[in-house]
């Protein structure tokens, strides 16, 4: 997994992906401009690898660690969800957040 600066895949990352067939990339706040831009960046990033689509991840845990803020869905801290003790609610969150 590799990270990078900016809103577009830099040429250096493209070179690394061609040479080493990386497993994926991780997006941080420095990579997020708008929902449309993130969708395009994720699509472009997934196509960097030759053998299989690259994994595209976001450092997004909810609460303080939220790289995707409005207009994206804002999630509460997962610690608060855990403290609730509500397993059905946790299952609903998992379904909503997961692929």
Structure description:
With 99 residues, the chain is an alpha+beta fold. 40% of the residues lie in helices and 13% in strands. It is built from 4 helices and 4 strands; from the N terminus they run αβαβββαα. The protein has helices at residues 11-20, 35-46, 78-84, 87-97; strands at 24-27, 55-58, 60-62, 65-66. The protein has a two-stranded parallel sheet with strand order 1-2. The chain has a two-stranded antiparallel ribbon with strand order 3-4. β1, α2 and β2 (55-58) form a beta-alpha-beta unit. The longest helix has 12 residues, at 35-46. The radius of gyration is 16 Å and the shape is elongated. It starts with 10 loop residues before the first helix and ends with a helix. The model has no long low-confidence stretch (mean pLDDT 85).
């Amino acid at each position: 997994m590799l990270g990078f600066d900016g809103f577009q895949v830099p040429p250096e990352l493209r070179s690394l992906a061609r040479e080493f067939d990386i497993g994926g990339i991780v997006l941080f706040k420095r990579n997020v401009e708008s929902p449309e831009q993130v969708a395009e960046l994720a699509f472009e990033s997934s196509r960097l690898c030759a053998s299989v689509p690259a994994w595209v991840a976001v450092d997004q845990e909810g609460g303080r660690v939220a790289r995707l803020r409005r207009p994206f869905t804002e999630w509460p801290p997962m610690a608060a969800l855990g403290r609730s003790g509500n397993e059905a609610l946790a299952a609903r969150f998992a379904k909503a957040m997961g692929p």
